[in-house]
Amino acid sequence: xxxxxxxxxxxxxxxxxxxxxxxxxxxxxxxxxxxxxxxxxxxxxxxxxxxxxxxxxxxxxxxxxxxxxxxxxxxxxxxxxxxxxxxxxxxxxxxxxxxxxxxxxxxxxxxxxxxxxxxxxxxxxxxxxxxxxxxxxxxxxxxxxxxxxxxxxxxxxxxxxxxxxxxxxxxxxxxxxxxxxxxxxxxxxxxxxxxxxxxxxxxxxxxxxxxxxxxxxxxxxxxxxxxxxxxxxxxxxxxxxxxxxxxxxxxxxxxxxxxxxxxxxxxxxxxxxxxxxxxxxxxxxxxxxxxxxxxxxxxxxxxxxxxxxxxxxxxxxxxxxxxxxxxxxxxxxxxxxxxxxxxxxxxxxxxxxxxxxxxxxxxxxxxxxxxxxxxxxxxxxxxxxxxxxxxxxxxxxxxxxxxxxxxxxxxxxxxxxxxxxxxxxxxxxxxxxxxxxxxxxxxxxxxxxxxxxxxxx
Length: 457
Description:
Elements: H1 2-20, E1 32-33, E2 37-43, E3 49-54, E4 60-64, E5 68-77, E6 80-90, E7 99-101, E8 107-111, E9 116-122, E10 127-137, E11 147-151, E12 159-163, E13 182-186, E14 193-194, E15 199-203, E16 210-213, E17 219-224, E18 231-232, E19 235-236, E20 244-251, E21 262-263, E22 269-271, E23 289-291, H2 301-307, E24 313-315, E25 321-326, E26 332-337, E27 350-355, E28 373-377, E29 391-396, E30 402-406, E31 411-417, H3 436-456
Helix pairs in contact: 1-3
């Protein structure tokens, strides 16, 4: 009799769990998730969602291209997350990617192709006051239109803005004064500043969409999307070259930062991935820079090696890294790979992680081709990009769970460790330690068992 009671209780508990965690189903084959992780699709039907973040009230803010910024209330534990009460925070269809927020959540930042806006934000009401101020302008380009934003947590009043070039190979980027293909530093308390008036953190960066600051030491990193359709000496080498790059820019609060205002190569020099396919490669190694194109005939590989800053790591060409987020200890750097279009076989389309050491640097050498460890990716990349998810933005919540958007499918996923623990357990707040869902299930299960006992007494 007692065994029967426990069987019934377990069955009811399973029903309650299923009912408390509604499941969404993607229109494409379910993604593959690495051992030790869980992922769940938690939102659909968004308008090309890109950047996202949480305010200090736990609300999720998302940039929807062509629409503006939307907010959601977030509930649930582990991977059992539900988003509800969607609300328009900023109704501006020109906003297309970048989003940031101050520590006190009173200032919200977002970007269009031309402008960085600052809004007075109320997290309790999930609303802004007024129309916002244009704090950085003069950034319009016709090709690479994202403007990534990073508000430093280590250096007061420093807002980083990343701007790409005006075409695939933008030769005007050889002039630092032009402002193309650069990351610049601004004071967010000022407004109406032209992009070229900002302090140059780094230039020669074709399209450094991913930008992150290591919380351990304040080191700034960027992930560069490199050029397509590359040729060298008249030979096409674009299938496996040039590499995407992870670049190191030093620390913003370091007065002796030798990497400040360094040139990272573009449009004259590019990181090597498969050196066997590069004509006249000589002793060129993976991760070193080489010269390309007829316009660069007077530029040699030695110039690229000696006069330009090499990447710290390289990733597979055309994998398109879009966002970077460190965990709270600076031990893991999570990367969204938006995926390729300029390759015969699709690559990218995943969320991966790069291991970092106690010195604030990646554990892999600059010549590595295996620095990225995939966590979640499409199970069938042959259907990409048409019928698969394409990761874009990343955000941490207070429970150490990692969220990411998929822009082309209009979705949001949550990623946790197996068993529902946050990827970043050090980030977990004390109030988030107990699982309300688990308590609800257990209380129901206990009540059921008690009732069953009573019925047999």
